Known about the structure:
The chain is of the alpha/beta class. The chain has 14 helices and 18 strands. α8 (217-225) packs across α10 and α9 (229-242) packs across α10. It is elongated, with a radius of gyration of 27 Å.
Amino acid sequence: MKNSDRKPLVGVLLITTPRFRNLGENTEHGYYWERKEKESQRILERFHFADTVFPGIVYTRDDIIKAIHLFKSKNVDMVFAHFLSWSDDFAWIRFLRDIGEMPILFAAITRDNPGFEDSLTEDRFIEFLSAGGLVGALEASGSIARFNRPMMHTVIGSLDEVMKKAHEMAQAALIRSLLRQVSFGLLPSLNEVMWSTYVDAYDLFMKAGPELRFLSVAELEEVIQQIPHEKTTDVMNRILDSYPNDGQINKEKMFASVEASLGLEEICRKNDVELLVLNDVDQMLLRRIGLRPGFTPCPGTNDIMVVPEGDIGGGLACYILKKLSKKHVNFIEPFYIDKRTGLFAAGHAGPNDYTDPDSSTILSIDTRFAKSNYKHAGAPFAWNVIAPGEKTIVHISYSNGRFKMVCSIVEAVKTKHFLAGYSHSLFRSAIPAEEFFGKLINVGVTQHYGITGGNYLNELTILANLLNFDLTVI
């Protein structure tokens, strides 16, 4: 598997002019270059959320060439660029021309106080020059406009404000990099009754990043047959010991569901897949396996994510949220609006993350297929009520050669289990529910969404730009 839990890798580009470098000899606060070294160290110390690649302060044309080569050789996720004061244009425009495709955050850091009251002594005059980052930022902005690079973001503010933006962009840039390294699996096919969820596999690779691997029910059967009986029994008992049940559990059928769940994870590891898009209502899957697996992620694992109904866009939304939040992510579809309360119910049948300790899980039966003629009809699954609290909800789909992302903040309210066979909850949108869904319908979406705890709208907004997705925030 790829190293998908690493920190962002940020190239730090700090530029200033060689004309000032050796000014300030014998002054109270030292040479200009000494002051810039201290300032650079203060900035570097704030990248606690990332690993950094710092080529040293850029003064000369040779410095910028070395910096570009270093950033490329280290394969940084993004570059943080800042003018330490006024600078010659040659370094900045060469960087913009030669760095290639790269997320860049250009930052203008403002001081809490100038550090001098006048420039009437040489020491204060050097500090006046040292404080000239605004001059450099304005100068640099002209070249930013001329080059009009994609994935270029700017920010101005205090060091705290700038680093907040840098953190958000670093997270988005990391996701962009991870998407270019990851493989998704489709088993066994897209959902033939949900054409609006279809995604072009070539464009998925070219525009979003992941490679799509096509997995078969036959291979899944082979993998399941190779799972030791003792392993399945152990995992089943761990689940039974961890969650209450509603008294409908058939252990033979639960064994089959756990075994198939382990099989899904094993087929992914075998094929170097991190996200499995499972068409869990595929007739061949249900006939050959006898059920849809109900216990992913299996206890003790977190390396494989499984989403249902063959929806690659929905899976992409869940994967992004998982990597951004490092929290539990659910796959949901909104069911109905309760006009009495203003809440809407949402959730999904089939595989879903049930392991969030703040959520509520009961072992029950997969009611949709309980009366079917499949071999393990009525097999158990993890019936989960999503944890209450603030949530980020994300939709991704594909239309007319473009990916679209829609995101919003909703609140999951505390509720009991009330939708048999579905992981679910009740939600409150930030605007009235009918208005909220009216906006979604006007955008043109599908029914599927990823959801996780917390607010990641800033990171998602940046990521949509880095991926060139059409974005709507509601």
